[in-house]
Amino acid sequence: MGELYVMDHPLIKHKLTYIRDKRTGSKEFRELVKEVAMLMGYEVTRNLELRDKEIETPVSKTTSQVIAGKKLGIVPILRAGLGMVEGMLSLLPAAKVGHVGLYRDPETLEPIEYYCKLPSDVEEREFIVTDPMLATGGSANAAITSLKNRGATNIRLMCLIAAPEGVKAVQEAHPDVDIYLAGLDEKLNDHAYIVPGLGDAGDRLFGTK
Ligand SMILES: O=P(O)(O)OC[C@H]1O[C@H](OP(=O)(O)OP(=O)(O)O)[C@H](O)[C@@H]1O
Ligand SMILES: O=c1cc[nH]c(=O)[nH]1
Ligand SMILES: [Mg+2]
């Protein structure tokens, strides 16, 4: 079973409160989502490999460490996952960005894939899939399956808020995938929205509806 990491940093908790607040408009919402993604990035990248590098400081020679240069890929689930990309790229500027386009059919709640474009060397990359919301888990599962069908073997899932149902669904379908959350909420409502959640992440990010 994949690991579940729920962030407990005060800055993340603080910013998540304003992301949830219905009075927060799109501009501030976008900024906060970007900032929380960046802060979460510290945890999501905690186990990146390092290698030694010989350098010279103004005082002496020394051996220091840099990221080993493993290839990384960030894959937002369109649309809402896009809001988390910039924050991650500010930490990992060399990462490539793939896109999986999915929407959840409002009647059936089934994910419908309409786009997928990944970096060409899929097999060699470590992927971080981003989506603010993990509700039933259908969209995340479909995105992860899509990556695996194209050859990806190393995948992490990074979401702002999840319902327990979504976490369970991903853990069952993809036990090799670790999940990183800023917050784990109570439940889903009758429309499969997360309670208390933040509403519709895509609409709040992009001002639609
Ligand atoms: O876990 P699930 O039950 O599948 O629900 C979560 C999905 O729903 C939202 O996307 P939505 O379908 O609203 O598309 P959008 O990002 O284009 O708004 C959200 O961003 C997730 O991708
Ligand atoms: O709460 C939810 C559930 C699905 N999609 C969202 O944007 N929010
Ligand atoms: Mg939406």
TrEMBL record:
Q: Which residues form the Phosphoribosyltransferase domain?
A: 6-208
Q: A GO BP term, please?
A: uracil salvage
Gene3D superfamilies in the record: 3.40.50.2020
Its recorded reaction(s) are:
UMP + diphosphate = 5-phospho-alpha-D-ribose 1-diphosphate + uracil
Binding residues for uracil? I194, G199, D200, A201
Q: Which GO terms describe its molecular function?
A: GTP binding; magnesium ion binding; uracil phosphoribosyltransferase activity
GO CC entries: cytoplasm
Going by the UniProt record, its keywords in alphabetical order are: Allosteric enzyme, Glycosyltransferase, GTP-binding, Magnesium, Nucleotide-binding, Transferase
| Positions that bind 5-phospho-alpha-D-ribose 1-diphosphate | R79, R104, D131, P132, M133, L134, A135, T136, G137, G138, S139, D200
Pathway it belongs to?
A: Pyrimidine metabolism; UMP biosynthesis via salvage pathway; UMP from uracil: step 1/1
Q: Which cofactor does it need?
A: Mg(2+)
Q: Which InterPro entries match?
A: PRTase-like, PRTase_dom, Upp_B, UPRT, UPRTase/APRTase
Activity regulation: the record says: Allosterically activated by GTP.
- Per its UniProt entry, what is the enzyme's top EC class, as one word? transferase
Tell me how the cofactor is bound: Binds 1 Mg(2+) ion per subunit. The magnesium is bound as Mg-PRPP.
Q: Which PANTHER family match?
A: ADENINE PHOSPHORIBOSYLTRANSFERASE, URACIL PHOSPHORIBOSYLTRANSFERASE, CHLOROPLASTIC
The entry's function note states: Catalyzes the conversion of uracil and 5-phospho-alpha-D-ribose 1-diphosphate (PRPP) to UMP and diphosphate.
Q: Into which family does the record put it?
A: Belongs to the UPRTase family.
The name under which this protein is listed is: Uracil phosphoribosyltransferase
The gene behind this protein is: upp
